[in-house]
């Protein structure tokens, strides 16, 4: 028996995600299990160490310092898949892509396309709503140097697999931010039931992969985008207009149009 009184591995067991993720019948239940997870010792240590030594600007704030669940409606037609929470962003606020420069860039672009109620994301309860979009990541804990290990990615993968399976009835498009997310996502889509092409296409900004319908799964469009990291945005590798254009394309493929306008 585990600490919740249910059979199965404890949160600190490496088998915790694989055991619990597929047993969740709705996203709220999945998110609650994600938050309990302590399956990767290095990530647990780092997220808590970061919280114990906050940046000067956040010294008066209590860090979340737990896994960060996905954010957005359960009937989302568009998913945005990143890398992992930032140590002083999502790991501080408890909401994906919230409170850091990458999130500022992403949510401003989502707002410009009509997929977010406001261009800023500072903390849960700030009024931000997403329209038809769910934002998530293949790794739910902040990693040192923003670099999860392959083993950590594998351990965390059941959460993303279960999340996409729960979204599948309405999901039509996925935008993947960066090479890491692309490499992590494609095997998950295959596990969920979408047929993957061989060889698998390489990541690139604007690359589009269309996976055919299979069984009860509808056709799915997967678009690659450079990650809105400061390394990419400061150098101009990813401009605001580039991201807005790609998100507008993704929204169109998902049948969302401009849901936040009017």
Automatic annotation (TrEMBL):
One of its GO terms (biological process) is base-excision repair. InterPro entries: UDG_Type-4/5 (IPR051536), UdgB-like (IPR044147), Uracil-DNA_glycosylase-like (IPR005122), Uracil-DNA_glycosylase-like_sf (IPR036895). Residues 69-247 form the Uracil-DNA glycosylase-like domain. SMART domains: UDG, UreE_C. Keywords: 4Fe-4S, DNA damage, DNA repair, Hydrolase, Iron, Iron-sulfur, Metal-binding. This is Type-5 uracil-DNA glycosylase. GO terms for molecular function: 4 iron, 4 sulfur cluster binding; DNA-deoxyinosine glycosylase activity; metal ion binding; uracil DNA N-glycosylase activity. It holds the Pfam family UDG. The keyword Iron-sulfur applies. PANTHER family: TYPE-5 URACIL-DNA GLYCOSYLASE.
